[in-house]
């Protein structure tokens, strides 16, 4: 009887597998043959062979290189020089046919090097002691500023310990990423300095809404030059017809407490179906200004460095297809230059999603204005600057409207002066908002405030005004407004650390965070459960709002599980995700 039941169960599983017409694949291997369906069509698809496996490339797909995205047509044109490069393809088998959804290529994906700088040469190369010759792709040259100028770049010098990633060619490595790991440059945003942001990882974990799967945590890690600044993460949604960008705030955080490197490690879990984008913008809460070479300090824009797809956690259930419909540019389309790229066609999955809008082709009437790199600004007192040219006036922009905000969270609003002939140092900034709201950094382009609590999800819209004036003439001003709409009360809970110290009888220590930074009855009031036991209160961190601590003596080995929940949130954070990330090789 038992054997009969096993055979029936096996037959049922086989029938399910045969009935499933869409299954996922991730293929990594050397690049083989490539071809395009059309030699002239800007958004053409075609075919690519990776590790000996031919894969269909749909129309409108961009190939991701380490430092850029390239239309497939242009990729095919240069593919002859890329034979043997490592390619990673994510896609689905649709009725047995492999169709790509995302393609990334590099000489060696994830290939890194490190060493000590021996010399910096005038031809734009850096010689590593006992190592290779590195060629910087934009060797503009940077010199030490006297007096010191926080708006100018600092040079690499002999003795710096650097890490790099690049392409080996002609006896040297052409680098596209170069970081001095033993150097820390600090600035003070409150004094008018720019705040620099460096991002290591943008890891997006997909929640596609299907059952019987495990959802991981989104994670963004990086560093700030000012450890007192808060950090906001924005998804960059793109209008498929015009290319206009809209920032959607998805998470907030701050550098780790006591971390002298000013490192931030922000994690959150999508409790509903994920909405993802090709790129994300990470912003500091202060120090937002244009510096040398036209670089915008205070923010860093980065593509997704890795996607964690849902993982089936119930044996015998159908494997979930890769949900490319949650990636806005793949589902809706996007703009490159004066070309409108539509939805991936054929769609790498089933059913085919409906785009958010249909383009007429007439939305782009003129080519975009080419930006001109700014010249290095002369050293100046950042608090006063020099007077602008006669007749120059600021033009205020309070940023895009923020929708879908969560009550009790720290909201960051980014304003700016759009007249590029006037620097921030030549201006004064003044934010005003509704009565009762305390605005932090009200005299800076970027401000933040704690979103008031509301007991319902009925949308509440609050309007903030940014007034920008000339520092040399307070009568020459410009104002703009921005609306912030709140319609959510459920916060997001994340377990940020847990450890067991077996000494002195054992001690379990757990740290968790909520994006609700309020205190009292409207705060998160996090509660913790150890090994499935009853929930008990965690202790709020009085220095870092939204952070909670817990310790328990008599524990000399890790418990089977740790769960943390909020009085307002719908998700329960567990150690499962962190353990999975550790097994996958991620740093926790």
Automatic annotation (TrEMBL):
<feature type="signal peptide">
    <location>
        <begin position="1"/>
        <end position="19"/>
    </location>
</feature>
<keyword id="KW-0732">Signal</keyword>
<feature type="region of interest" description="Disordered">
    <location>
        <begin position="368"/>
        <end position="392"/>
    </location>
</feature>
<protein>
    <submittedName>
        <fullName>Uncharacterized protein</fullName>
    </submittedName>
</protein>
